[in-house]
């Protein structure tokens, strides 16, 4: 049966990553991390949003790319990843993760046979690999620690001691793997070098790209205004956010604090381009002229860390519209919703404590003769 007892610990783990960590403030030295987490089940799990194989990359605990056995493709989860990295990077990343998917499938079978487990049960194999670095006030990044650990059915299985350059068995069934991998000097040398150097180089690149987006971000101008409707008893309340970049934005019209939706008559232009490579969005709703409730427009622009609210005054007034006023006829859509599957993946408590860091080029950067990962 599926090990449901791990679902709740995983739920809290991802809530911590997504909700709490982004709002923490840091002082120098500031610790950064690049982490990749792979999760594979021994057979398909009949639960919504749970895939037989999943891989995700996280920079400072924010998802930057994603792959699962259903879409069979490595995709960006941040604008700067999509804009800065060439298609060749994503193509090679897809090939790498497809290879890892097969590696996990073979090695779950190896572990099940080694432990004499039934194929009717569902088992889970995970790999967490990455690096952490400290950034000083001058922007210099220095290696802090590396992480390379395997987990089986929610328990620690095997890890790499970066300092002493040896594999450490955390379970009796892992002793055989430890002995076999310890004999491969090239694997130990490469793993240590990757964690301390190559992973750190990719972290520097990704941090640079993410900071460039934040630096280039432009907050929106927010305007609220009132216009006449066809019926004299009705007015139209319009909220315009314009001149912002990047394009992700949330706009809410509230009545006495409650967010209005389509059922309340709210209409939206959607996000559309301006002539200067920025974007705009316009939402509006019709209300009775006699309505005395307080109406506010809430605008959240993550790219520039802006959160602003503006209140409509007397519905009878129609202030002049400022800023970007022309609306392009070309619509533009973009989906940045964080998938809820991320809240359901199982991670062991030990893996949760080590939300550290690593680049996904472990296989693609190896020479042709050493690209194949060793079996457990």
From TrEMBL:
The chain positions of domain Ig-like read 220-313
A single GO BP term for this record reads:
immune response
Against PROSITE patterns, the record matches this protein to:
IG_LIKE, IG_MHC
- Parts of the chain that traverse the membrane: 6-23
Database matches in InterPro entries: Ig-like_dom, Ig-like_dom_sf, Ig-like_fold, Ig/MHC_CS, Ig_C1-set, MHC_class-I_related, MHC_I-like_Ag-recog, MHC_I-like_Ag-recog_sf
| Pfam families linked | C1-set, MHC_I
The record's keywords, sorted A to Z, are: Glycoprotein, Immunoglobulin domain, Membrane, Transmembrane, Transmembrane helix
The record's similarity note reads: Belongs to the MHC class I family.
What this protein is called in its record is Ig-like domain-containing protein
């Amino acid at each position: 049966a599926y090990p449901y007892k791990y679902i709740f610990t995983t739920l809290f783990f991802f809530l911590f990553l997504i909700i709490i960590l982004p709002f923490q403030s840091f002082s120098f030295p500031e610790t950064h991390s690049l982490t990749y987490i792979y999760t594979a089940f021994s057979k398909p799990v009949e639960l919504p949003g749970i895939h037989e194989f999943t891989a995700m990359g996280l920079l400072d605990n924010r998802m930057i790319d994603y792959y699962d056995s259903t879409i069979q493709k490595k995709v960006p989860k941040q604008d700067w990843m999509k804009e800065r990295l060439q298609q060749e990077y994503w193509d090679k990343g897809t090939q790498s993760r497809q290879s890892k998917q097969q590696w996990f499938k073979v090695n779950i079978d190896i572990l099940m046979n080694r432990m004499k487990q039934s194929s009717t049960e569902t088992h889970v194999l995970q790999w967490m690999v990455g690096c952490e670095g400290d950034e000083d006030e001058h922007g210099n990044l220095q290696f802090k620690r590396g992480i390379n650990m395997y987990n089986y059915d929610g328990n620690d299985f095997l890890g790499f001691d970066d300092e002493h350059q040896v594999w450490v068995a955390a379970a009796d069934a892992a002793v055989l793997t430890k002995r076999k991998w310890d004999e491969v000097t090239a694997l130990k040398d490469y793993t240590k070098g990757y964690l301390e150097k190559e992973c750190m180089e990719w972290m520097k690149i990704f941090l640079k790209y993410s900071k460039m987006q934040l630096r280039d971000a432009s907050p929106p101008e927010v305007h609220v205004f009132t216009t006449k409707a066809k019926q004299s008893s009705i007015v139209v309340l319009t909220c315009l956010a314009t001149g912002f970049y990047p394009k992700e934005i949330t706009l809410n019209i509230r009545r006495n604090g409650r967010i209005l939706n389509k059922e309340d008559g709210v209409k939206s232009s959607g996000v559309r381009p301006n002539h200067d490579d920025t974007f705009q969005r316009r939402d509006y709703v019709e209300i009775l002229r006699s309505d005395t409730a307080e109406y506010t427009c809430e605008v959240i622009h993550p790219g520039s860390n802006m959160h602003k609210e503006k209140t409509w005054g007397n519905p009878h007034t129609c202030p002049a519209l400022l800023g970007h006023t022309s609306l392009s006829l070309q619509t533009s859509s973009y989906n940045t919703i964080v998938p809820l599957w991320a809240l359901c993946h199982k991670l062991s408590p030990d893996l949760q404590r080590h939300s550290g860091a690593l680049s996904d080029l472990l296989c693609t950067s190896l020479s042709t003769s050493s690209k194949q990962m060793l079996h457990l």
